[in-house]
Amino acid sequence: MDERRRLAKEVELAATPDQVWQAIATPEGMSLWFVPHEHSGAEIEADFGGGNTQAGQVLEREPGRRVVYGAPGPDGEAPTEIEFLVEGRESGSPDRPASTVLRLVQSGFFDGDDWAAEYDGFGKGWDVFLHNLAEYFRHFAGLPVTNVVATGFTDLPGEAVWAELTALLGAEPALGERVRLTPTGLEPVAGVVDLRERLLLGIRTEHGFYRFLVDDLHHMVSTTQYFYGVAVDRASRTAAWQAWIDRLTRR
């Protein structure tokens, strides 16, 4: 395999190694910052919204330190593998608490003319999710999560979909800006912009995160939402946002 197809990420987290281990080694923990995860027999199933799920298994596990997840590749190819490695870091100063470094390595990218775009897309996606994890420990540590995920697909160009999405949200704010989004037919979203890139908008609210993304490569538009420590009707809220996404992708 070309060494460039081994994607590596690292993030320092304001948490103990045990807290980080729980966040990457259990379905409940993965749901805190990634997408909803549940046990499905011997497998763990991830829900990416709109009926799109992916199942995988734990291939290797060193409790408290390392876990490797994997899913079979197409036509007998090598599996896609995602390795998480947890490493505690001692404080170098009485004024600075100890932290934990989380390392992630993904391998098994499929061959094809667009593998480089796939590689870059996964890299940007992990940047978002690892940012979620860091922000969770910074603002909501210890609180349980309710996830809302909605996904749709469209043949329209990404920029056109993004323009329509931000119009329906009622704003296209800059990073760090305080904003009140008014998504058509849904309750307002008030908070601060903590993620902002091309075709990506993230809002941190009093109780969690809202993420909006248009994926040009997969012709996909999605919202991933996290509500911490508050009562949320996941089913009805998911249905409402899925209907919102569906209206957007049918335009």
TrEMBL record:
<feature type="domain" description="Activator of Hsp90 ATPase homologue 1/2-like C-terminal">
    <location>
        <begin position="15"/>
        <end position="137"/>
    </location>
</feature>
<dbReference type="Pfam" id="PF08327">
    <property type="entry name" value="AHSA1"/>
</dbReference>
<dbReference type="InterPro" id="IPR013538">
    <property type="entry name" value="ASHA1/2-like_C"/>
</dbReference>
<protein>
    <submittedName>
        <fullName>Conserved protein YndB, AHSA1/START domain</fullName>
    </submittedName>
</protein>
<comment type="similarity">
    <text>Belongs to the AHA1 family.</text>
</comment>
<dbReference type="InterPro" id="IPR023393">
    <property type="entry name" value="START-like_dom_sf"/>
</dbReference>
